[in-house]
Fold:
Amino acid sequence: MEKPKILIVFYSMNGNTAKLAKALAEGAKNANAKIRLRQVQELIPEDKFNDVMKKTKEDLKDIPIASNDDLVWADGIAFGTPTRFGNVSAQLKQFIDQTGGLWMKGALINKVATVFTSVSTQHGGHETTIFTSWAPLIHHGMIIIGVPYSEQRLMSMELGGGGPYGASSVSSPNANIDPTKNDLEIAKVQGKRLAEVARKMM
Ligand SMILES: Cc1cc2nc3c(=O)[nH]c(=O)nc-3n(C[C@H](O)[C@H](O)[C@H](O)COP(=O)(O)O)c2cc1C
Structure:
């Protein structure tokens, strides 16, 4: 059986969204998909990086920068972004805003898409970020999926992220609390589902 091609493309300043991205990649890989893990271009000048950002950049240095070719290559695409004022980060949006040519050609129509995020506070906008990220994907004609409630961890009463809209994590105001085990498992389920639905669309 042909393997679905799954692109996981993300921005991460402090490393939390990157950890979710790797969990999604693992979930998709376990579902027998071909994986491309990519980050988007940084927009913050290097001389403004703090120590945490410098460490994140070092940790992620082997992950290539995403291109439009990666989007065209993929059958299914997961977009990851930290929450910025309840919205998508400028860095991921900048990447999406460079896809006008693909839009005009209808190159992303019927590709499967899903979104994940990281926030610092429990009610800081997981859902709004994921929702607002969906708008350009709909314009592209992509088929958006989340995580169904068959995933029992969505019922968890523990502090953490992850909902029917997609995986998320709550990193604290210092952005230094890692995604929980539940958050990572939900991200794996999201990656697996992305691969499975993309396979059906091939
Ligand atoms: C400019 C800015 C705006 C932010 N806005 C929000 C917000 O609206 N809600 C929230 O919970 N966290 C907000 N955060 C915090 C990040 O979303 C949070 O630290 C996230 O876990 C970072 O993900 P990363 O580790 O992948 O960079 C904001 C951070 C910055 C720098």
The first strand starts at residue 5 and ends at 10. Strands lie at 5-10, 34-39, 76-82, 112-119, 143-144, 168-170.
